[in-house]
Amino acid sequence: MNRGGGLGPHRTARKRPAGPHQGLPSIGMDMRYASLDLLAPVARTAFAGLDAYLRRETRFRLFETYRDPAAQETAFAARTSKARAFESAHQFGLAADFVPYGTKGWEWPATDHPEWDDLRRAAQSFGLLNGIHWDRPHVEHRAWIGVRALTRSAS
Ligand SMILES: [Zn+2]
User: Fold this and answer.
1) How would residue 152 be classed by pLDDT, with cut points 50, 70 and 90?
2) Which domains does the chain have, with CATH numbers?
3) Cα 49 to ligand 1 centroid, rounded to whole Å
4) Which residue from 26, 67, 151, 152 lies 20 to 30 Å from 114 (Cα-Cα)?
5) CA of 6 to the centre of ligand 1 (A)
6) 154 CA distance to ligand 1 centroid (A)?
7) Cα(144) to centroid(ligand 1), Å
8) Helix boundaries (H) for the chain
């Protein structure tokens, strides 16, 4: 998850904090991607269903889907993520973050706020996982369990 500024739910340009990119190539643009089209095909149907439900019934809106490896390193350095490049489901199109969007823009309730439980119940009803207690916006597809195991066993 990355914490953004006051951009609307469909705006994707965002200035990232300066940080080390661990030698990864940079395309010189700071972007937050929030398109369902950037999710892996295996995950797209479930996430599209969840997104539609959340738009209809809640304040949750799609905040971020695919995250490029350099952005992941920046998030790690800024301690908004505990994963490094290629250690997050976001690099594989298997995760999306949903955040409440109110009249003043994006809102970040405390991690123990009950509004997050609405996201968890909704994600589970679409067969998705939302179980990281310190990263409440983060929703993963179950395919990530296998992909993660493969990436950790490969040498
Ligand atoms: Zn996430």
Assistant:
1) confident
2) 33-154 (3.30.1380.10)
3) 18
4) 67
5) 19
6) 23
7) 12
8) 41-57, 69-77, 115-125, 143-153
